[in-house]
Structures are given as C-alpha cells and as structure tokens.
Amino acid sequence: MTRVAFLLLLFLTGGVSSEKVCSYQDVLDYLNLTKSNEVFTLTRPILDHTHPTMVKLDVILYSILAVIEKTQTFVPFIWILMIWNNERISWDPSDFCGIKQISIPREMLWRPDLFIYEMTEKDDAPQNPYIYMSHDGTVILEEDMKVVSTCKMDVHKFPFDTQRCNITVGSAIHNVGEVRLIPFSNSSRATQFSRKVMLTQGEWEFLDLSVTNDTLNFDRGQWEQLIYTITMRRRPLLHVINFLLPILFFLSLDLASFLISDHRGEKLGFKVTVLLAISVLLLILNDILPSMSNKTPLIATYCIVIFALMLLSLLETILVTYLMEKDSPSQENLSLRDDCEDEQDKDKSHNCGREEKIRTLCSCICDVSGGDASCELLPVAEEVGNGRQTGETGVLLLILEELRELQKSLAPLLSSKQEAGKTGYWTRVARRINTAFFIFYVIAVSLFLILIFMGWST
Predict the structure, then answer these.
(1) Residue 75's closest CA among 197, 181, 161, 163?
(2) What tens digit of pLDDT does each residue of 54-93 get?
(3) What number does CATH give the domain 21-235?
(4) Bridge partners of residue 132, in order along the sequence
(5) Separation CA 155–CA 153 (nearest Å)
(6) Nearest 10 degrees: CA dihedral of 200, 202, 204, 208?
(7) CA end-to-end span of the chain, whole Å?
(8) CATH T-level assignment (fold) for domain 239-330+429-457
C-alpha cells in the first residue's frame, strides 16, 4: 500500500478528527436561560426561601466632582461592584470546552434592589448593559455611577476644613432575613484602591474611605446597610489668596492710615473706601457659606471682627477730626490777638496812614524774627520818620515794603511753626485720644489674629 493510499484510508475512516467547538449560546441553551424565562428574573435566586442572599458589595471612589457648601451637596463619581450567588445556575466547564464565565444582558437575571439613601437626583451616567455569570452560579455586576447626594457639612473651619460625607447602600424591600450585605473590601483596601484610580485632583484632597455595617430597625424587621464614609480635606490656597489675604491687606492699610494727618479730609475718605472694600468681600462670603450651620464659621468671625475694628477706627477718626476742627477758630483768634496786642499801646498821635504802615511793619518783623528784639525797631522807625529828612524816610519805607514781601513768602512756614508751638486744648485732647486708640487698635488686632489662626490650626 502506497503512502497516499494509507492517508486516504485514514481520512475516510475518521483517523483525522477535528476538535470540539463550543459557544456561549450552548451554555445558555443548557441552562434554558432566555429573556422570556421568568424563573431567573422574578424572584430571589434561591432553592430554599429560608436562605438569605449574600451580596458582597464594594465601592471605589473615582473622583470628587463637586462639593457645594451653599446647598450641602456632595457629587462623587464611584464604581460599584456587587457579587451574589444564583442557586439556579451551574454547569461543568469541561462539558463546554472550558467555559467558566460568560456575559449576558443584565435584564436576564435577578439583581439586588440596592439604592443609595443620600441620593437626591437620578443617575445620568451610562449603565453597564452586561453582567458576568460564572459556572458555579456567581453573578458579578459592575457599574459606574455619578451620585448627587446630600452631605451634612461642618464649615466651622472654612477654608481649612475637613469634610466627611456618607454613601449609604441598602436594600429597598428585602430585610436581613432575605438579603445580607457584606463588604467585599475593608477600609484600608478600599482607600488604597481609590487613591490608585482617582481621576481628578481639584479643590479637595481625598484622605480616607471607610466602611461600616449598620442595621435599621422597623416594625416589619431589620434592614441591613453598608455605610461608606469619604473623608476629604479642602485645599485652602485659592481661598487664602482670593479672600483672607486681601482682608489682611485692607487691615494693614487701615493701620497705616494713622500716619495721615487729621487736619485734612483724606484720612476720613481713605478709611471709608477701605471699609467699603471689606463690605464687598463680605457679600462674596455670603454666596459661599451655607445659610444654616451649627457653629458660626471662623471666617465669618474673622471678617465681622475686622469690619467692626475698622468701623471703630473710622468713628475714632471722625471724633478726632471734630475736636481739631473745634479748636481751629479759637487758635486763629488767639494768634491774631497775640500779634496785635503789642500794637495797641503805641503812640496814637500819628496819622492813620503812617500808623497802619508802622503796625504792619511791627507785625512783619515780630513774625519773622519770633523774638522781642526786633519789636524794639518800632520806636527807632518812629524816631527816624520824625527826625530825618523825607528822602531818608522814603528809603526806609522801601526797605519795609521788601520786608513785607519776605513775610508773605514765609507765612506758611511761620504758621506751621506757630501751630506746633501753640496747640489748643481740644487739639491736645484729640492727639491723646488718637495715640491711646492706636495702641489699643494694634493690641486688639494682634490678639484677635493670633486667636483666629489658632482656631483654624487646631
């Protein structure tokens, strides 16, 4: 027999056999698992109704989308894993070419009626259309979910606060005797996985994800629930730069305004402008913080106390300005009376024109020199005017006119020296009040800032 004939004989007798080919549909046909078969969808997948369905649950945090303090809303994006056993499903993988797991549409099997207690809006994230089914009856459902939930927030230390928001998962109608919830991962493992898969790094820094088991007692029985607590800390840099530092800068400007003279209106206008700037920041703060809180936020105390201190500083400036303005008319009258007091005892026998010139001369010389020696020139001027010739008198009068022009140019300097040398009663009182208030202001601001920053840091 030739070699070709031998190969032909083997082929005809089945000596060369092909491997067995299996499909997922063969498994479904073996289980009689179809969309119209209500055995797998209507009731819990148990053979004995006294056996509870054990559901293993795992929650992993993908990202923190939003934390809205005004409405106390927490929006995380999470991944949920549910694992349970269907007692009506089983097959031998060796009979189906080693197939151990298949994916089927989620509508073909019963699913636990789990929901999130804190959820306020319907999930708009796309659902996973398939679930995994193993040969031993284990069913696995993975789902991504955007959760819009309520969270009781404590903004007492805003913006250096740490928030804890809960995601409570439980069954809607099945009590403990029917559905039991078991955490698939402990707290440390859930935290570790969440840190690995975090997609965003925004305003909030993820710290911890802890899981606890709890039960709710009602008249109809007990309901089991798993509480996942997400701990996060705010990154305060943005609020410090945009809010806290500007208020501190305005406070520094208010302290520096004590160097502005109280005789003018610039100081009062400057303080009013700074106070209005603080008011604008308070309006911004009102839009950030919630309207109701158990404790007054420290940042609100920070703003209100600084606003009150600056308001008190403004009132003190108004008082000091009023006292100095009250003393100004008496100062002017006293100055004029002192300048002309020595002129009233002079000789009244001269004509009106010469007497006016001589008085002006005496006033000018006394103001320029500031001593009594120059005032003695008056009798000399009178003697020269009476005993000398008319030409010499004219020269003397020209010199006196030059002195008068000099006095006009030196008038501002002399007036400031006069005010410094002669201060009224109310001016002295105002300066004492200003000094005492400045010391009090610096001490109060320093103590308050130390206390408020200690409250934020502890």
Answers:
(1) 163
(2) 999 999 999 999 998 888 899 999 999 999 999 999 999 9
(3) 2.70.170.10
(4) 103, 140
(5) 6
(6) 20
(7) 99
(8) Methane Monooxygenase Hydroxylase; Chain G, domain 1 (1.20.58)
